[in-house]
Specification:
Shape: globular
Oligomer: single chain
Number of helices: 0
Largest sheet: 7 strands, mixed
Length: 128
């Protein structure tokens, strides 16, 4: 069974930090580009970050650039999203997914094209 499990969400005050984890089972994350996405109530899902398979390059939405860092621990088969300086507008359910189309890699992470094997998500709430 191919599965992704997100964890690490919670309630944090503005300016705080969280580290999200995306743990894979049934496949190795290092074979794929991995994206982080989020969806707030009443809004469409948006890509927030992606880490490339080929060269390990990282990509970020403008709204999180400089605050979020994506990383991968192949030994643990886990991808992380370190989130610093959190803002209220970061509140959302965060998901990770794998890119099923190697030709796309992270190039389509903003729209999520080709990404699948979605996890169940982890809730991030930023509130004072």
């Amino acid at each position: 069974q191919l599965q992704l499990v997100e964890s690490g969400g919670g309630l944090v005050q503005p300016g705080g930090s969280l580290r999200l984890s995306c743990a894979a089972s049934g496949f190795s994350l290092d074979y794929y580009a991995i994206g982080w996405f989020r969806q707030a109530p009443g809004k469409e899902r948006e890509g927030v970050s992606c880490i490339s398979r080929r060269d390990g390059s990282s990509f970020y939405a403008d709204s999180v650039k400089g605050r979020f860092t994506i990383s991968r621990d192949n030994a643990k088969n886990t991808v992380y999203l370190q989130m610093n300086s959190l803002k209220v507008e970061d509140t959302a359910v965060y998901y990770c997914a794998v890119q099923s189309m190697p030709f796309y890699g992270c190039s389509t992470y903003r729209a999520g094209t080709g990404f699948g094997s979605w996890g169940q998500g982890t809730q991030v709430t930023v509130s004072s």
